[in-house]
Amino acid sequence: MQLLLIHSDYIEYQTKKQTPVAEKIEESLKSGRLEEALTAFTAVESVDEANPEEAIKKAVSEIEKVATQVKTDRIMLYPYAHLSSDLSSPKVAVEVLKGIETALSGKYEVKRAPFGWYKAFTISCKGHPLSELSRNIRPDGTAKAVCKTVAVEEKEEVVSEALKAEGTARSYWRILTLDGELHEVESFDLTPYPKLQKFVNYEMSKSRAVERAPPHVELMRRLELADYEPGSDSGNMRYYPKGRLVKSLLENYVLDVATDFGAMEVETPIMYDMNHPTLKKYLDRFPARQYSIESDKRQMFLRFAACFGQFLMNHDMTISYKNLPLRMIEMTRYSFRKEQRGELVGLRRLRAFTMPDMHTLCEDMDQAVNQFKQQYDLCIDVLENVGIHIDDYEVAIRFTKDFYESNKDLVVSMAKTVNKPVLVEMWDTRFFYFVLKFEFNFVDALDKASALSTVQIDVENAERYDISYASADGKLERPTVLHCSPSGAIERCIYALLEKAAMETEEGKVPMLPLWLSPTQVRVVPVSEKHLAFAEEFSKKLDCRVDVDDRDLSIGKKVREAGREWVPYVVVIGDKEIEEGTVNVTIRSESEQNKPKKVQMTPEELNTRIKEETAGKPYRKLPLAKYLSARPKFF
């Protein structure tokens, strides 16, 4: 069970609509208010199903402890599914919530918001040090059952030697400044670099679990992009038409960039033989947990990257030094990693994800270093065009001590390129297959960091997979290999864009996606039915994703809903627009909160503006019906 405990001046709620799993309630429970209360936002999880009574007991104990600390005798129990991606059945959830309510009622004034209803709520947090606390409840009574489950999983789960080494490897953390100096983290003043401070804390703490849902989870649902799939394993998502469009555009963009960079697109299987001699060795060198399955009495695993598929292909190829550097890329839909449950949340960390995976065979280390520099710059450009700028992420550079001493200028140049200090991790001994690696890490609203782009110099796998090329003198030589993901996981790019928008909203800015990624680029809003024909004619003059709000709603509500959907351009058409031939366009990118920017434009002028903003980016047609009255609701 997950608890988020807020000491509040007041909490009030109003039910809006019941879901299919809503509990039946009396009229008096459809709204409620409690002042000077401890609000317990609660998510009952699947682990609680084995022993609901123990879950109730533990939760009551934690709530009472905090109530005593903040000196309140009023408690609001509020079911809040967003705290977890591993929820119990509705039946157990209601049973546990009612049990907590009953146990507390004799000692406190308790109100419970109903389960399974969409609710509007307002809360005023007191803001003292104990006013916001979270608790992760694991009932003791489930220990035996949980241990049995874990024991079974560990027989099947592959835990690589590299993953074990990652937990025990001794590394040195430093801050690299633009003058090329390495500073002890503890003695370096990070105050001027608040995002770097958060990233350093995240990396050095090794705490990856998320205690509450980050803002992008609510946004991905409200914008009808993606949602959890309860019918699958945790960390596997469903994507609605708008989300599929955004994913597809990002995939196509990264593939276009890689192709322009000289990479050849390939496709490889998602399933491999765990006992294949080469693959078995590589499994032990990659720090990730795998899904394993049995097929025809063979133990198989689902790929966690495209590395081995491409390396097996390289092994069978005839390659000359004239072909180098040789680049291949695959858009892996999907790669699979069995991330731990507490780390899975929204689009940030998944078990099935789409990874653009590019590998470059280089003649020698000198060529590899040259390619590394180019691909570092390439990754910066890719994220910039996605809408994630240098100021939005922090850089981590990881290397062996020997490599650093031989290539210090390369490492320092990476900090100079982004023009800010970077976090460095250095090993005395090489535990992994790479000697140099960087990642661009996005720090979200919960101060959690997630890696986006990365490039690695691999000094093991050419030998392991028996990959060779013919040199100028006809001898067979081993190439040096680069691993590169120009953007990182596609889902994580969407996560970063949504988290960035949420944080910008807190700063008073208007949230939006880049125009080329916006599912609807222009919405035409006729004032009344008599303006619909002109609205249709106007929409046909636009070469973009344009829809028409033909619903029988007030003009104010139509415009507000377009704003909630982050539509970049909203065109209102009434009598004046029909008479004059120009339209009133609200430009979201130039607007402020509660202060929209409106401009009179012709359709030709609007078309020109949109083409200029989306130049060089991929395009797909509108993913839903053009008329809003014909659209279903996905969330």
Strand order of the largest sheet: 9-8-20-19-21-22-25-18-17-12
CATH architecture type of the largest domain: 2-Layer Sandwich
Query: Which secondary-structure class do the elements indicate?
Result: alpha+beta
Q: What do the pLDDT scores average to? A: 90
Can you count the beta strands? 30
Rg, rounded, reads 27 Å
Tell me roughly what share of residues is in helical segments. 25-40%
Flag low-confidence runs: 141-158
Number of helices: 18
Strand content: 25-35%
Main sheet: strands, sense, barrel: 10 strands, mixed
Element layout with pairings:
Layout: E1 2-18, E2 31-43, H1 52-70, E3 74-79, H2 90-105, E4 109-112, E5 117-125, E6 132-136, H3 143-156, E7 158-159, H4 161-168, E8 171-176, E9 182-184, H5 194-205, H6 215-222, E10 226-228, E11 237-239, H7 241-260, E12 263-265, E13 271-273, H8 277-283, E14 289-290, E15 292-295, E16 298-302, H9 307-316, E17 326-336, E18 352-362, H10 365-386, E19 393-400, H11 401-406, H12 408-418, E20 422-427, E21 434-443, E22 449-458, H13 461-464, E23 469-470, E24 476-477, E25 480-485, H14 490-506, E26 522-526, H15 532-540, E27 546-548, H16 555-564, E28 569-573, H17 575-580, E29 583-592, E30 595-601, H18 603-614
Helix pairs in contact: 1-2, 6-14, 7-14
Catalytic activity: tRNA(Thr) + L-threonine + ATP = L-threonyl-tRNA(Thr) + AMP + diphosphate + H(+)
Enzyme class: ligase
Subcellular location: Cytoplasm
